[in-house]
Design brief:
The protein has about 100 residues and is mainly alpha-helical. About 60% of the residues lie in helices and about 5% in strands. The protein is built from 5 helices and 2 strands, in the order E-E-H-H-H-H-H. A two-stranded antiparallel sheet has the order 1-2. Strand 1 (about 15-20) and strand 2 (about 20-25) form a beta hairpin. Helix 2 (about 45-60) packs antiparallel against helix 3. The longest helix is centred in the last third of the chain and has 19 residues, at about 85-105. The radius of gyration is 19 Å and the shape is elongated. The model is unreliable at about 1-5 (pLDDT under 50).
Length: about 100
């Protein structure tokens, strides 16, 4: 299994998913996801949709944008902020309402 410096640099990072000492293609991962979803009786979703679901749920539950951005592998938090602005906007409204309640006491 590749470790540390043993990772081949000629293989794009999205191909570097390692299982049982071999590299897997994105199609293999998608096919595995499809089988898991079918067995669980869950409707078909794309693997990429899981990233969006993760990011949305994390942000809605108070994980900061910088942390979510890093976990998704984004170059900058700005990209994640642009992509998930709708989630952070609702959080800002909720924070404003909370502060409004505090200040009106």
């Amino acid at each position: 299994m590749p470790q540390g410096g043993d990772v081949r640099k000629d293989i794009p990072s999205f191909f570097r998913i390692v299982s049982r000492w071999r590299y897997l293609s994105p199609d293999s991962v998608s096919n595995m996801l499809k089988r898991v979803l079918e067995r669980a009786g869950i409707p078909k979703v794309r693997f990429h949709d899981l990233r969006h679901t993760f990011a949305t749920i994390a942000l809605q539950n108070g994980v900061d944008i910088k942390t979510v951005s890093g976990m998704l592998g984004h170059f900058s938090a700005g990209f994640a902020l642009d992509t998930y602005a709708h989630v952070t906007t609702s959080a800002q409204k909720e924070a404003a309402m909370t502060m409004g309640n505090v200040l009106s006491m």
